Each structure stands twice: as structure tokens, then as C-alpha cells.
Predict the 3D structure of the following.
Amino acid sequence: MRIMVLALLLLSSLVMRSQSNCWRGITPLRSTCEDVKKLLKVDKCIFPRSEYTLSDFHIMVWFANEDCSADPHAWRIPKGTVTAIIVSPRNEMRPSEFGLNLSKYKKREDGEIVGIEHYTSEEEGVTVDLYRGFVQNLFLNPRKSDENLRCKPLK
Amino acid sequence: MLVDVGFVDPYLYWEEPQPDRLQLLGGNSNGLCIVEGMSWDCMSAYRLMELNVADEVVPTTVYAVYKSGRVKPIWTGLASHDPLGHAVSSSPVGDPSSRASSTGSTGSNGHADDSGSEVLAGTSDSSVTVIAGADYVSTGPQDPSRLTETQVEKLRGNLQKFLNDPECGKFINALLNSLPNEVASTTKRVGSLMGVFNNVDHGGGFWSGDTNRKNALAITNPNTMTTTFDSQRSTPLITGKSWEQFGATVLLAHELTHIFTHSPNAGVYAHVQMAQAASAAASSLGLDVKGALMLDFPDPKNYTKDDDYDLALSEYYNRTLAYACRKVKL
């Protein structure tokens, strides 16, 4: 019985993880520039936006660079904290390879390019662009539950 | 009279079956036009169409896509298509023997109906369910018509002026060079935007129609190499006043950048890649768009909805390009 409970807990934590806005250990509003450097093996962060080309991904990372007095849209977090990540695979990858189950996401067709589909979970803070079933871009933003960390709520 | 129109590139019109859809996969790849079973040169065939004595059709296959992921062809025949390359069918699933007609409904991948209902694929396998409808309703432009030769030539001439202008042309080259060589299934093209323009012109062509999308001034279909300008908001700009033509040319460059790819039906560039490339090009050429336009690369924190952010990226590209090309006289 105890093993079953542990297994269930492990399974649920895996599901939670696969549905989260975390990628390779980098999570908006949690991770820092130091985390990014360590996890992506890059040597610097440029604020507010850093771009990295890795062997298998193009990455754009946004960092907190202003406080509430300068920008009401900012987050109440230390400067240098990651606020958003955009991941663009260089090769063909399915959503499942990111641990994403899009069945729970809201789908919309692109307004301009026939064939591009956008899947969004506002709860998770995740948007996925698909073209021909492959992930074109993965946008990882703060979760909806993180909105309380906003200096001033966005309308 | 029906004309089986060949395509410029063999990869056009090819589309991989996707899960849980009914698809019409059409197109031949031999580059020939067939009129009533005989090979014709395509120019003559198009002339017949202009004279309204011929209709364009494409060889089309309807695929049932099983929930298990298995794909099976269930109908093959000739079907008309709309300017976005969607096969147009009255009901290919329900009546496999009937040839598609131009009065039927249209879907993003050419589906049986727009009712939003589930339609049995009509095979003996009772587990087969084809989902048709809701997701595909009103995806294409309404009442499309081909741009006139005058309009197309105006677009071509103005794009050439952009490319010939030292500052603007340099910026466009830098922008195209800054696009990533590969993203997902997208591989960058070699050449210029005029090459893409010619591919569209000789492919599905340039059209005008109601895009049915609030933010879409134009729609591009990479599968058919078709660009449709919104008949109300964009088409009049093409031959309008100088500043209106400028806007239409920026819009044209925008659409062509989306499909500046080696195989447009395999991959496209999204707004985030285009905005990044515009930003990189501006930096490399010392264009101070922030100082001149108070234009920053859109920060996701300022947007609560993904489509708002996407629009901001799109506008960033347009405004940066417009600034770089501001000295071009049209």
C-alpha cells in the first residue's frame, strides 16, 4: 500500500512537472541568471533579453530588469530573475517530447499563416506554436497563480 | 471543362496527415497542365481559365485519420480548390463516388462539413471517427478573387524598389541573413524576397478576399504558395497613394518573409523569428529604432494573451522594416 501511494505521488509529480512552465530546470519567476548559465552552459546573461543558440535549440530568456517603481507591469522579484523563456527547437520535435499534453490546452489557428496552430494554457503559462505537428516555438511564462507577484495587475 | 493544373515545385501541396482530422491532400508534381486528359502548356491552360471556359482542379485524396494515429486514404478524385489551396467538396466522405463541386464547404484542410459534428469515415472499421468541423470553420478568406495583373505588377515593382534602395535593401538582406537557418522543420531559403514573390506569383498566386481575421491584413498559405490580401483593409493600398503603397509593400515583405524557406510547406518562420531577425538586422546596421520610434522588442510581461504578444512581434517586424525603408519613394 505504501509503495502504491509513493508511486502515485511520484506519478503525479511527474505529470505536474510535464505540464509546468519549467524547461531544463529553468522556471519563470524562480530561476536566476546564474541558474541559466549553469543549466544551459552559457557564459553570460544580457538584461532584459538574452538569446542563446544551443546545439538543439534557439533560446530567448527574459530577465527582470526593473522594479515596481519603474514599471508597473514588472514582477516583485529580484532583478536578474527569469521572467519568460522562448524555446525554439532546431529540429523536428513533437509536443510529447517536451512532456506536453495539449489535450488540455486551448487551441487557436494562426491569424495569418495557414497551418500554424497555437495551443495555450493560461494556468500553466505555456503557449506552443505547432506547424505540421512539430513544435515551432514554446513560450514559457509565469503561471496564472503567479499573478499575485505582479506589481500591478495587467488588465 | 476541367484543367488539372500542375505546380511549379513538386513539394507544394504535400501535407503530412495529422491526427484526428479528415484531410484532402491534393496536387500533382509533374509541372504540366492537363486539359480534358491532354497535356497542355500551363500558360494556355490558365488562359482558358481566364476565359471562364475551364476550372482548375487538383487531384485530391481524402484521408481518414484514426484516433489511434493510423491514416488511411478513403477517397481519391479531382476537386476544385479555393485560393488557399483547400480542396472544396460537397461531401467527399458521405458520398465517396461524387466528384467535389465548387459549391461545397471548405475547411482548413478541406474537410467534409463545417457543422462541428463527428462524421463516420464510412469504412468497415467501427473505431474510425473523423473529426470535422468546429476547428476548421471560417478559416479561409471569403469571396476571394485574383489580384489583377496591374496590382501584381505594382506589388512586384514596389518590392523591387525596396530591394534596390541602398539602406532598405541592405536591411532586408541583413534581416534575411539573421533568420535562423533551421527551426523545427523550417530550413532557410537561399536567394532574395523577389524569388519568393515569383514563387507565389507562379504558384497559387496573389488574391484579394475577406481574411475573416481581425488582425490579419493578409493570409499566406505555405502549402499552396498563395497570399491573400484583405479586400477591405489591404488590397486598396496596393495601388493607392504613395504612403498606402508603402504600407502594402511592407505587408508584402512581411508575408514573403514567413515563407522565406527552403520548403514552405514543410516549414515557415513565425513572428518571433521574424522580430528577432528584424532586431538583429537593425543592430547590425546601427538603426536606432528605439530612439527613433520608441520601439522596444516586445517583452512578454506586458501581454496577458498569447495572441496579443504575437501581434506585438508582428508589428515590431513591420515597424522596424518600415523605418529602415522610410526613404524609399513609391
Q: What stands out?
A: Residues 2-149 of chain A form one domain. Helices of chain A lie at 2-18, 33-40.
